[in-house]
């Protein structure tokens, strides 16, 4: 592993893709051929258990919105998103409003679509400027919001941002992201020192994902909500990773019962089509001027009908009562099965929520070695954290007890180097 066909594809790719994009070596990557449920098959016919949900996209599993895509693609693949839109865009806006601000506060949410997750973040940052007239951003160390230029303004993992700093406006203040209750003191002191008068947006992940799976202590989101109310900034929750049950609640902000002004969603929204959205309180979104025929923020594929149809099917599934139990039960089983790894010595902490768990190891080298060994054993996992020293496990919600046990055995064997 990788087999001959994957190795051959790697050689071909090396000649034709930007060399910074896909990591290629003698033992990486496998090239995917098909996927279903929690399984992926590669070009050589090997089957894998995907404990990443393909970056958190395959919420309930691969293919759960496939029928909706087939149906939609048979009739309408593309519409004119901000000119003559598809009917299904309206339906998805209504469903998103119902599941967010209507549920939380009994008032409408309004949507601004994008393709990739980072575009939803950029839509939120623009909305904050429009709504407040201020360009300042408050974000957090370790934060990840995608890699477009707008989203990079909020980036808290320096090496993603630094090569491009010269083209980025100096508008961001970055605070420490509290990881436990003792950290709250540091965070509160830092927040008290921020001059809020220039800050338009507070951009935060309710649980940091790419930054190493950090669940902030109770009180953190409430403190941000109170601060935004005080200074008149817009509170943006980036739930592109955590949204749609990943953390064991439909949205991670529901753990603390804090309602943002804007919420960014992507990844599991469609189960596999590039579509994202910034949903905002109507009163904030209505600060945008009414379109007079030229939208200030749009794109060719905005509200693409295939993405919207898949989104509608995904939301239908996410609203089924059994999903919460699936995630809670699988998350508990995974957490319990992982616990004994703490005794091995190389693992210092296991943390996270729902089906978003991180195993903190003693080094990034160890995690890379583990990830490669797991791949050879048929399990896909990824490193997380600014220095890659966290092994992240974020399987599809349909993962079974046997599959959880199999994956944990493979983590253990990999840690022990066997
Ligand atoms: C919290 C968060 N925000 C934004 C993004 C960017 O999404 P995309 O890669 O689809 O642009 C990610 C991607 O991992 C993410 O985890």
UniProtKB/TrEMBL annotation:
Keyword Transferase among record annotations: yes
Keyword Transferase found: yes
Cofactors, names only: pyridoxal 5'-phosphate
MF-aspect GO terms: transaminase activity
This protein's UniProt keywords: Aminotransferase, Pyridoxal phosphate, Transferase
InterPro entries attached to this UniProt entry: Aminotrans_3, Aminotrans_3_PPA_site, Class-III_PLP-dep_AT, PyrdxlP-dep_Trfase, PyrdxlP-dep_Trfase_major, PyrdxlP-dep_Trfase_small
Similarity field: Belongs to the class-III pyridoxal-phosphate-dependent aminotransferase family.
Protein name, per record: Aspartate aminotransferase family protein
Organism listed in the record: Luteolibacter algae
């Amino acid at each position: 592993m990788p087999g001959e066909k994957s190795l051959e594809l790697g050689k071909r790719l090396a000649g034709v893709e930007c060399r910074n994009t896909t990591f290629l070596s003698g033992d990486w990557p496998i090239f995917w051929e098909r996927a279903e449920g929690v399984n992926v098959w590669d070009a050589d016919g090997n089957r894998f258990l995907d404990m990443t949900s393909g970056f958190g996209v395959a919420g309930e599993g691969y293919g759960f919105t496939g029928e909706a895509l087939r149906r939609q693609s048979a009739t309408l693949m593309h519409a004119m998103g901000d000119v003559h839109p598809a009917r299904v865009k309206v339906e998805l806006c209504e469903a998103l409003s119902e599941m967010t601000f209507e549920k939380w506060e009994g008032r409408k949410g309004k949507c601004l679509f994008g393709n990739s997750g980072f575009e939803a973040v950029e839509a939120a940052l623009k909305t904050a400027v429009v709504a407040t007239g201020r360009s300042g951003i408050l974000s957090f160390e370790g934060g990840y919001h995608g890699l477009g230029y707008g989203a990079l303004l909020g980036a808290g993992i320096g090496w993603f941002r630094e090569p491009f700093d010269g083209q980025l406006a100096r508008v961001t203040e970055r605070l420490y992201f509290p990881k436990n209750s003792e950290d709250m003191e540091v965070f509160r002191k830092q927040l008290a020192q921020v001059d809020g008068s220039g800050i338009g947006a507070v951009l935060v992940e309710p649980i940091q994902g790419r930054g190493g799976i950090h669940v902030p202590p109770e009180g953190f989101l409430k403190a941000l909500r109170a601060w935004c109310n005080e200074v008149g900034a817009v509170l943006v929750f980036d739930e592109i990773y955590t949204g749609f049950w990943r953390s064991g609640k439909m949205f991670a902000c529901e753990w603390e019962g804090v309602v943002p002004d804007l919420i960014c969603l992507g990844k599991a929204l469609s189960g596999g089509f590039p579509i994202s959205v910034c949903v905002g309180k109507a009163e904030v979104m209505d600060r945008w001027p009414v379109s007079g025929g030229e939208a200030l923020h749009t794109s060719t594929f905005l509200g693409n009908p295939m993405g919207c149809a898949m989104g509608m099917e995904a939301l239908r599934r996410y609203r089924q009562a059994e999903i919460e139990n699936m995630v809670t039960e699988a998350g508990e089983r995974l957490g319990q099965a992982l616990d004994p790894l703490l005794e091995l010595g190389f693992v210092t902490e296991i943390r996270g929520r729902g089906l978003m768990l991180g195993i903190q190891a003693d080094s990034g080298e160890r995690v890379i070695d583990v990830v490669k060994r797991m791949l050879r054993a048929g399990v896909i996992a990824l490193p997380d954290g600014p220095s890659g020293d966290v092994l992240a496990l974020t399987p599809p919600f349909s993962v079974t007890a046997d599959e959880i046990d199999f994956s944990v055995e493979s983590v253990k064997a990999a840690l022990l180097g066997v």
